[in-house]
Every structure is written in structure tokens, then in C-alpha cells.
Amino acid sequence: MINKKLLLPSISNFRDLGGYCNKDHLKIKKNNIYRSNFFSNISKEDLIKLKNLNIKTIIDFRGTKESEVNTHEKYSKLGINMYSKPIETNSSIKLYNLFTSGKPSENKVKKLMIESYKEYALDFSENYKFFFEVLSNKDSFPLIFHCTAGKDRTGFAAALLLYCLGMSNENIQKDYLFTNKVWKPNLELPKKASKAAIKAMLRADVEYINSALDAARNAFGNLDLYLTKALKLSDTKKNKIFLNLMEKP
Question: Rounded distance, CA 56 to CA 221, Å?
């Protein structure tokens, strides 16, 4: 089940992961963990609402250059613990160069998006390992994790977390694809780029998220082994995360 109510209308992809029900019919606590796009366009009204959430921790997956360009004067005060864990893939750099050249095609864009997602799983496991480390600390909540769009790097983090909590593949994909219904992009893109190429970059696509999950499975045998070996998620840490995030039976 997805909460379709926009909590912060000016931050269109900000949403509570609370309410999802896993295979054992246990739900994620509400008002405890949020995924989001960046807050550069946050309104005064939504800034007040966000402060009232009493956020303790924010994990930022944006690349270093993104963080320098896309800013908000009050961002550093939105949470008590602010962590930057930059994820900037080689494929995303190629994608940027492709768009700045003014010659992106739908096929080229889609291919680079898929490759970028694979890199999330295989080249940035330390960043996602840190994400789960923080989640295992009961003092980290309420918590927000985000990137620029709240779609790709954040989407993979959310997918891994929902899997860890025992959610169905259907719910994992629904949460990922919900970006397409709520996110309002404000990126400046070359006018020469085709609508198809732009759409391929901006949409959440099942093929994209599956490419990351499949890369993890193929490299380690299955997702459980990926969590255990690549992200060092022990049973003890997993149980702590479960207790921190799930409602009691």
C-alpha cells in the first residue's frame, strides 16, 4: 500500500515509507523513515512542516558537484546528523556529457541508465553499507535519505531496504515506480534533446531497478548474500533494523 498523500507538495518526491505491509503482515512504522528528492525548491510552509517532523538524520547520495550546485541555505539545519555519501557513476557522467552534446537518443540514454544502476550495486556498495549501518542505530530516527531526484540512487536504497524488511517484489516495484506519479522534475535540459530521450532519463523504469538488483544477484548468488557479503548486513544488524522500523505484532 502506498501513501498517495503528498506530505510536502513543494518537494514532490518526499514520501513516508511507513505503511507498507510485508509477507508476515507486519507494517513499517509511519513518521519514521522518509525517501525524498532534494529540497532546493521547498516552500516556507513545507519547511515548517519538515522541521516539525523532528528529523534526526539525513543521508545524502548526491554527487559532490551536485551538492555544490544544488543547494538550500537551511539544508544543513534540517537534521541533527547530516551524512554525505556521494554516488556518481561513470555512466552518469557519460549521460551528462551526452545531453550537453545535444545528441542523446532514447536507446543511448536507456543503456547508460541501466549501466548506471548496475554501478550502484557493484561499485558503491560501501555507500549502501553505510546506509544500513545508520538504520541499525535506534537513535537515527526519524530519518530521511535522498539524492537529487529521489528516483535512482534513492530508489535502489529503498528497494534494498524494503527487501530486507520482507516486502513483496510487487510492493518494491510499486514504491519505485510511484516516482512517476509524483515527482515534478525541475532540471534544465538541452532543447535539442528529443522528448523520448528526456523521458528515458527522467522516468523510473522497472528495467532500471531490475538491472541493479540483478547485478547484485549475479555477483553474489542472490540478494540475501549481497546484503550479507557486500553490505556486511549481519543477522544482528538486520534484526535491529527490523525492530527500529517495523510495528510490533
Answer: 35
Q: Identify the helix (H) or strand (E) that includes residue 145.
A: strand 143-146
Give per-residue pLDDT as tens, 81-136: 999 999 999 999 999 899 888 788 999 999 999 999 999 999 999 999 999 999 99
Distances in Å between the alpha carbon of 142 and those of 19, 53, 111, 243?
15, 8, 36, 14
Q: Which residues contact 187 (CB under 8 A, 6 or more apart)?
A: 202
Contact 175, 2 (CB under 8 A): yes
pTM value is 0.95
Give how far Cα 56 sits from Cα of 70, 84, 85, 159, 179, Å: 22, 14, 17, 22, 24
Q: Residue 118: which H helix or E strand, with range? A: helix 106-123
* Residue 86: cis peptide before it, omega within 30 degrees of 0: no
Could you give the CA distance from residue 102 to residue 130 in angstroms, rounded to a whole number?
37
Give 169-214 as a DSSP string: HHHHHHHHHTHHHH--------TTS-HHHHHHHHS--HHHHHHHHH
Domain 15-245's class? alpha beta
Beta bridge pairs of residue 83: 59
Kindly provide the b/e burial profile for residues 67-86, where b requires at least 16 CB atoms within 10 angstroms of the residue's own CB: eeebeeeebeebbeeebebb
The C-alpha cell at 225 is 548474500
